[in-house]
Write a structure and sequence with these properties.
There is one protein chain. The chain is elongated. α2 (39-50) packs across α4 (129-149). The protein has helices at 5-19, 39-50, 75-81, 129-149, and strands at 32-35, 56-60, 64-70, 90-98, 103-113, 121-124. It is built from four helices and six strands; from the N terminus they run αβαββαβββα. Strands 1, 2, 3, 4, 5 and 6 form a six-stranded antiparallel β-sheet that branches. It is an alpha+beta fold. The mean pLDDT is 82.
Length: 150
């Protein structure tokens, strides 16, 4: 079997580039947060922090809040998790609330293929460092909002 020089060169470049990938440095940002406020006020502050980021509320109950936004700014997510029916997956944040003043919040992250359809598939990406950093930033905004309202 004969290979062209272009194919061999492309293969070698891919191997070299994949060897250059590095593991994240340091610990992952947290996905558990504690707010010294009632549950209802905590939820309001969190929603206020996420709505400017184009998140929309999908489900809301006493103990859980689920918000989605299109992942149209992430080409890798579109490439890996897009489908022929919907090329843009959703980024989903699932927040679980425990306690009331102080309120503990646990955040889980998902990429959702075919969002809003009967064929929706969720992929857990809670251990993604960039996603966790984004959640930690939004939670810091929520904590600042709560502190300012006191």
């Amino acid at each position: 079997m004969k290979y062209s020089y272009t194919a061999v060169a492309t293969f070698l470049i891919c191997v070299i580039l994949s060897a250059c990938q590095t593991a994240p440095k340091g610990p992952l940002p947290p996905n558990d947060f504690t707010f010294n406020a009632p549950r209802a006020k905590t939820k309001e502050a969190i929603v206020a922090a996420f709505l400017p980021r184009n998140y929309q509320i999908v489900r809301d109950s006493d103990l859980q809040l689920v918000m989605d936004r299109p992942a149209n700014d992430n080409f890798g997510a579109q490439l890996l998790f897009g489908s022929q029916f919907n090329g843009v997956p959703n980024a989903r944040v699932m927040l679980t609330f425990l306690g009331d003043n102080p309120t503990s919040v646990n955040a889980r992250l998902f990429i959702v293929t075919n969002p809003g359809s009967g064929f929706e598939q969720q992929t857990d990406i809670t251990n993604n460092a960039d996603g966790r950093a984004s959640i930690a930033k939004a939670m810091a905004i929520a904590q600042t909002t709560l502190a300012a309202s006191k």
